[in-house]
Amino acid sequence: MLEFYFSYRGVLKRLRSGALGAEMDLIAGDLHSQGYKPASTKLYLSRIARFSHFAAERCGSEPISATIVDRYLLTLGPGSPRIAAVTALQHARRVAPNRFVTAVASVVDDPDAALLSSFSNYLSRVRGLEPKSRDGALLGARRFLQWFRIRYPGQDLGTMKAQHVIAAVEHQLSLSAASSTRTAATSHIRGFLRFLHWAGHHHRELSPVVPRTPHWRLAHLPPRLSWTEVRRAIDTIGRATPIDVRDRAILLLLATTGIRNGELRALRLQDLDWRAGEVFIRHTKGKRDRVAPLLEETGAALADYILRARPKVDSAHLFLTFTAPIGPIKYAAPVSRIVRKRLQCSGIELGRVAGAHLLRHSLATELVEQRRPINEVADLLGHRSINTTALYVKVATSQLADVALPFPGGAA
User: Fold this and answer.
1) What gap in Å lies between CA 213 and CA 163, rounded to an integer?
2) Sequence-distant (≥ 6) Cβ neighbours of residue 221 within 8 angstroms
């Protein structure tokens, strides 16, 4: 595989010598399969080769220890060369892990590590929370434990009393002003206290002691765009480049199905039913698979993306990145950046919230204003409770006018 990038025999001989010489062709093939450009691949291979010779002088054919890696990085000094070398060595370690000594993880002196691990297992197996929800609950528990350890050093959790809990809640509430954040903080503490009692770490369930903070879910209006603005943003996207074709398909799918960010990233090619004109959405937030209609324009945009613009890699995911390593879009931020960029390019002024959920809110509001049945909108969005969908009725001003009560003393 090295011959694909290098032609001189002397260079090939140098690359294939050293501690990682036997693995260099595999590393080159891996970088090629991930879509790295030839210039980038040659730089990575050159950096790995320099380290390979350095390691050969110190360990020969033995596995490369972390000490040797650290010594090599110290020769580069701080700054860009060292960062680039670290990235190159990460590729080498991923492709040839057997050539490196596996570092023994150091045991962090965390007295609550085992307890938090047990709590995470409880959240997953007993309560069935998704990873993102578990992360929030674990963060709340860790903050509670940190406060308790600092305030009452050396004291066992089993001796915790109601006044301790109230003091911890007051501390957490003092750190935030938003009602939603305050509600989440108290909810996390309440859930952790239930776990302590359930797991036998405390003889009494102290969760009822935690006060409830006022938070009215439907007290605000959801951020939204008019359908004219959504349409303008989609029409502004050109089709000159593969990225344009992909981004147009993404915005059309978000705007016409109300699909969530995570649901869009999880879509696979097999989830598109072209004959029925449907999109099968799996692994939803509500843990219920659902089907969304695939409109003709959206289907045409997706077909254009798949046939003309989608990278030719072995991946079942529908939407892929265009920068190496080419593969599925793993995180929510890239999708949000795509939406924000395309909305800004069409001249739309954006507030703090401008991601996939903004298009979801806009679709729901538009459907309600078209007098579509509220249960139909709820099914499309995948809401488990129709009360969640009722939020969008508040912005349907045309319908609110019909239910307005007559003014006292006015004409009948």
Assistant:
1) 18
2) 394, 395
Catalytic, 260? Answer yes
Tokens describing residue 381:
């969005």
pLDDT single digits (tens) 55-86:
999 888 889 998 899 889 888 877 778 888 99
Buried b (16+ CB within 10 A) or exposed e, 8-43: eeebbebbbebbbbebbbebbebbbeebbeeeebbe
The CATH H-level superfamily of 227-399 is: Intergrase catalytic core (1.10.443.10)
Q: State the catalytic residue, choosing from 14, 248, 357, 361.
A: 357
Is 383 a residue of the active site?
yes
37 is catalytic: no
Please name which of 256, 224, 150 lies closest in space to residue 396, comparing C-alpha atoms. Answer: 224
pTM tops 0.85, yes or no:
no
Name the residue among 396, 85, 388 with its Cα closest to residue 260.
388
Q: What is the pLDDT of residues 226-252, one digit of tens each?
A: 889 999 999 999 888 999 999 999 999
Domain residue spans in the chain?
A: 2-99, 113-212, 227-399
